[in-house]
Amino acid sequence: MNLDASLLKQNAACGQKGAPVSPPPRLLDLLETSHHILCISHVTPDGDAIGSLLGLGAILRAMAKRPVLALQDALTSEFQFLPGVETIIGPSQVGRSYDLIVCLDTSSIDRIGNVYCSDAHDRIPLAVIDHHITNTYYGTENWVEPSCAATCQMLVAMADALNVPLTEEMALPLLTGLVTDTLCFRTANTDENVLQVTLRLLRAGAELDHIVRNTLDSRSFSLVKLWGAGLATVQIEDGIVWATLSAESRRQSGVELHQSDGLANFLVTVREAEISATFAQRFAQNGQELIECSFRAKPGFNVSQVAFAFGGGGHPPAAGCTVAGTLGEVSARVVAALHELRRQSLPAS
Length: 349
Ligand code: 5GP
Ligand code: MN
Known about the structure:
The protein has helices at residues 5-9, 25-33, 47-62, 118-121, 151-161, 168-181, 192-203, 208-214, 221-231, 247-253, 263-267, 304-309, 327-345; strands at 36-40, 66-70, 100-104, 126-130, 141-144, 235-237, 240-245, 275-283, 289-297, 313-315, 318-324. By secondary structure, it is α/β, with parallel strands linked by helices. Helix 5 packs antiparallel against helix 6 and helix 6 (168-181) packs antiparallel against helix 7 (192-203). The protein binds guanosine-5'-monophosphate and manganese (II) ion.
């Protein structure tokens, strides 16, 4: 497997503390001069996707703009506590006449799904705001800050640059994205800037315990049953711990359609492991077997390299990809690549 050289270099950057960020002036110009703005994010939306979408909507409304918020996939029930989720539309309601499209928290264009339609939208400026190290710079204007722990963190800097005061309507979704992407300030990228931004969001009216209770500290019984099935397959070898989730076990558990299983987060806490992986089997509408791979790593191991090499992306400690093939074949191939990454990343003895 070829690990991308530029990404390999970024191993060294893991865990470094970033300086405060500021948006490029061209992005600010685009936002200030546009009126009817389509705001979108990635498929199977997580807390940062939904939080940044709702936060941007509130910022744009404070600027007297007309934002439209859209996602391909339905929101899972854990995010229903966020005011405004009912205003997010699906692909069938997205029209084609906008002055600007803003895509949030999405590292590559294929991750947007069908709320972005190249035929209808390719003449409209596309502004990308994202914090993934694997971002492919697919927009007409790209603001990418891998030093930020969440896209929501970038939007606070953007509101400042636009002279938009933070309100509670912005603060609740923006803090939700920061809390979920940092697993409540436990990831290695939780630096001084993250905590300063958090303090400002708290002062603007967001309540931390309300967010944690509704997201990280809340799961359905179905999800626990799915974990049970996954944990029955768990294995560890040379610092890599991994488990598989069959489509049948997912169906039997009854978890919601776009519910992320989060099992890789749990597995990386295994003391004997540096890297965790889960392989979830899914069948496309045409019957093709697809394996959704999730990776997590302790500091010093950049799993986004492996995700990127298999057509996905993410961050050094948390990344993923979707690979066509059978559960057995894909997991064997990807685990071999993770072993290679681990060997390359271990300090020379
Ligand atoms: P998770 O394991 O929670 O699904 O994803 C962890 C990270 O990897 C997230 O930042 C997510 O955006 C990224 N990621 C997961 N799956 C994919 C994928 O198929 N493609 C890309 N580009 N990124 C992914
Ligand atoms: Mn994010």
